[in-house]
Amino acid sequence: QWIFMNGGFVKKEDAKISVYDHGFLYGDGVFEGIRAYDGNVFRLKEHLVRLLDSAKSILLQIPYTLDELSDIVVQTLQKNELQDGYIRLVVSRGQGDLGLDPFKCKDPQVIVIAEKLALFPEALYEKGLNIVTVASRRNRSDVLSPKVKSLNYLNNILVKIEASLAGVPEALMLNDQGYVAEGSADNIFIVRNNKIMTPPGYVGALEGITRNAIMELAIDKGYDMTEQVFTRHDVYTADEVFLTGTAAEVIAVVDVDGRTIGEGVPGPVTQELLQDFRQLVIRDGVK
Ligand code: PLP
To answer: What does this protein's UniProt record list under function (predicted)?
Structure first.
């Protein structure tokens, strides 16, 4: 396996960074998770725009243009002979001293890792997930915007820990007002009476690339698709619930906090959008 770093490719065993890298010391950096299907990179430009926006927001200068980053991602897939895979693009602030000061870090690291990925076993896509809501909150008044996909994922990791302790594969975060925000690394959609809703970004959700693609597909299909603030009650009483994300793709949720969702199986709207999404990812990629 080949990793892109320091402007070229190195073997996985040799891909090492300094212990003084502020990405390691402080989670100071940004990242993207991107996916390739059949040799096509899905919505690469959107991912790179989000990466550049995240970097700009934290005053991190990425030493490549969007087009250069795009070439690096495609080359990393080719070098690893991957047609289908998951790509992790990481930009860390780079090496500094033990102080927080990011301006002492003169050489940001750009690292691209590509490999095969299956987040959930295939059987769960057919059965749907049981999930819980957790106490960890997405804080809307954090200094850092939830739009920044930063390397500091402790909040999300705590959500994942709470999920594991509850014996389920994923969990939902609420925000500080108790509105439903998102999963540990995925967005949530609910369906009621054929109306589809997902929380707006300002609730504290990342504006997921998969989320945006699903919203477009739903609108194309003529669904009443809106961004809405909603609570756990709305999730419990929905006809269908599903999660979206680059790694998760589209996956049904059939139980939340012990409340069976709809019939307890993936519903028709979820299945339709999953099919549409699977066609879109092949059609809509960058070779
Ligand atoms: N929310 C969070 C916190 C995430 O980390 C991710 C994954 O990237 C998502 C949502 C889903 O976003 P996307 O569809 O762009 O992968």
So the answer is: Acts on leucine, isoleucine and valine.
pTM of the shown model: 0.95
Provide the CATH number for the domain around residue 152. Answer: 3.20.10.10
* Same domain (yes/no): 167, 89: no
The response to whether residue 211 sits with its C-beta less than 6 Å from ligand 1 reads yes
pLDDT tens digits for 176-207?
889 999 999 999 999 999 999 999 998 989 99
Residue 276 · residue 216 · CB < 8 Å: no
Alpha-carbon span 58 to 80, nearest angstrom = 31
Indicate if 27 and 46 belong to the same structural domain. Answer: yes
Active site residues: 149
ipTM surpasses 0.95: yes
Domain extent, residue 94, equals 2-115
Candidate of 150, 156, 186, 188 to mutate for ligand 1, largest count of ligand atoms within 8 Å of Cβ: 186
